Amino acid sequence: LGHLAYDRPDLAGVPRVLTGVSWGGKLAAAYAATFPADFQAVALLYPGLYSRLQPSWWQQWRLAWAGAMGWGHVTLPIPLNEPEWFTDSPRWQDFMHRDELALMRVSIDFLRANLRLSQRIEASAATIAVPVLMMLAGRDEIIDNRRNRAWFQRLATPRKQLIEYPEARHTLEFEPDPDRFIDELIAWLRETV
Question: Residue 184 maps to which CATH number?
Answer without folding.
Answer: 3.40.50.1820
